[in-house]
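Issue 218. Parser rejects a valid record. Input:
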Amino acid sequence: MDVRGQIAVVTGAGSGLGEATARHLAAQGARVAVFDANETAAQAVAQDIDGLSVFVDVTDQTAVEAGFAKTLSTFGDAPRIVVNCAGVALGARVVGREGKMSFDVFEKTLKVNLFGTYNVMSHGVRHMLDLPVQQDGERGVVINTASIAYEDGQFGQTAYAASKGAVAAMCLPAARELAASAVRVVAIAPGLFGTPMMQSLPDEVTDKITGDVPFPARLGDPREYGLMVEHIVTNPYLNGTTIRLDGALRLPPR
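Output the parser choked on:
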């Protein structure tokens, strides 16, 4: 599928990987709807890329449907590209000090990372199915964000790893289900990227983290995530798989 001229929805597009993806797709000629729970950030990105700013809580079905309706009415058609980047990275022990439980962290993490992804994917696909198949035989593509933590999650990442593992696990069955409708589903499992969350860490912590990355020995550039999204969109044989984007990094236990 050619990116140019397509309508794309990107969640979590007010910052980090989502912002980089929205900017990259727009630079390739897509019309981008910037979905984010931070309305100010979404507006800033949308203004820069001549896109559409949409305030959306991905865990809220009504809000997500309203976001797609606004996209449809503004751009005149449904999106053929949906990229899920919205997420949280909350750390907590299963049982912490003095017996403190962490079910609240587990519940919130799955609600945003897993339920939110499924929610946006479901609504996005429902609108895609109203579109005609293109000359290349495709109708649309959904790209979800997992994490390398789904395979080698670290100490304190039980909730996060579980949520991202579920995102990876639902990729193949979703792709098989939607194959008859000419819609592809692919997941990206990023490693350590230079997002605002990582950039807020002290230099010595960042240096230790990047020292574990074989090559290139640095944090990933969010623009490289956008490049992977573009490649998935343009490569019609990529389907039903989770792609690690991590510089060959394998996370140590701690």
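Fixed in the parser; the record now loads. The chain is about 45% helix and 15% strand.
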